[in-house]
Amino acid sequence: MNRRPTLEDVAARAGVSRALVSIVMRDAPGASDHTRERVKRAADELGYRPDPRARRLRQRRSNLIGLTFAVGQAFHADLVDGVYASAEALGYDVVLSAVTPHRDEMRAVRTLVDDRCEGLILIGPRMRAGRLGDLASGMPVVVMARRVRAVDAVRSDDVAGAVAGVEHLLGLGHRRILYLDGGGAPGAAERLRGYRRATGDAGLPEVVRPGGLTEREGAAAAAAMLETGDLPDAVFAFNDRCALGVMDVLIRAGVTVPQQISLLGFDDSPLAGLAHIQLSTIRQDAAALADAAVSRLVSRLDGDGAGSAPTDIVRTPTLVVRGSTAARKA
Fold first, then answer.
1. Span 122-181, pLDDT tens digits
2. HTH lacI-type domain: which residues (predicted)?
3. Residues 126 and 184 in one domain
4. Do 278 and 290 belong together in one domain?
């Protein structure tokens, strides 16, 4: 059989009516134990599986949560995993829709709406706040990793995280701390503000250069730094991927980390803890953030939070010290 088996196929194999097969597949009353066993055996032999889409079309609710994320962002992948776990525990399924260089956010969102998702969780959206507000006026929406005043948001305290990172480097005796900025990325303005606050409180000059979100951008920033020959005591990168690009270029150039330059990232991505990398970083609790986002969305969907004002749920990130930062040598 080259096509997907149907209820009619199962009925023919089991020698019963289509209606009786439907009763068994829905676990509804009206069939004997012997008949149920026979129908389920026939279904297994044919490889029949109920179509959840057809079932949802018959229901008033789909119990689907739509989730957008950016391809290539390791921290987004951690959040996706957390959303799956939290949604399943509350009886919801998750539909993913990726944002890529060739697939923008609005297309990703439209796909989820067309799939009858009841609510949306958007990880690090870059669309303007007004458009997010318009979207949230039509259905429950929770934004992650970005603050949006008119929409429910769940995020880390990026300012506090950046302050903790700078204070760690200051405690190691570093005084010239280069910060590689994240540009227009969600959370970038807050992390830059935290860096500026901490260096200002310490009476130190700001040293800020363009960084980015990827290893390639981090590598370009490190190459530019090496070209000037004016090396800082430490580099604090916008995220772990940017930091890894910096680390690669420095090591290839014979600059040792952390002996000559301490290096700090942000996110605590899976690569950061590898034995040959050991990147010190600011850890965001992906599981806790995901659970808070799902809980908030489900409260809207189930009516508990209907009509209430948008909330801004903030979690404090923590410093993870590994081998890429060390005390400054005199």
1. 999 999 999 999 999 999 999 999 999 889 999 999 999 999 999 999 999 999 999 999
2. 5-59
3. no
4. no
129 and 245 share one domain: no
Based on the domain organization, do 226 and 192 belong to the same domain? yes
d(CA 192, CA 176): 16
Using one digit for the tens of pLDDT, what is the confidence trace for 248-307? 999 999 999 999 999 999 999 989 999 999 999 999 999 999 999 999 999 999 876 566
The total of structural domains in the chain comes to 3
pTM, two decimals, is: 0.79
Structure tokens, 88: 């399943």
Residue 192 sits in the same domain as residue 264:
yes
Q: Using the CB atoms, write b or e for 15-39: b if 16+ within 10 Å.
A: ebeeebbbbbbeeeeebeeebeebb
Burial of 66 (0-12, 13-18, 19+ CB in 10 A): buried
CA distance 257 to 327: 11
Q: What is the CATH number of the domain that holds 79?
A: 3.40.50.2300
Within-domain flag for 237: yes
* Whether 243 contacts 281, CB under 8 Å: yes
Q: What ranges in the chain are assigned the alpha helix state H?
A: 7-14, 18-25, 33-46, 52-58, 74-89, 105-114, 129-138, 158-171, 188-201, 215-228, 240-252, 286-301
In a domain, 59, yes or no: no
